[in-house]
Amino acid sequence: MPMSVVWNERTKLLANALGRASTACLTVGVLAPTASALYMGANGPANLAPLVAAFCGWLFSALVLHLAARRVLGRLS
Prior knowledge:
Layout: H1 5-40, H2 49-74
Helix pairs in contact: 1-2
């Protein structure tokens, strides 16, 4: 049974939303703190453990959302 055009478009819309959420996680949780740490220079945070933990958490979230978007798009074939 062929998929309807509406179903295909809704699937693409969901995949795009997941992709944008993935990009937002990467920007907010990884790129912004990295840029902030680079511009702090010698006045960087005293304890890097929480920063690294947050970095890894946001990166993992971005990866999971990206893979979810790929899985959603895989339903189109």
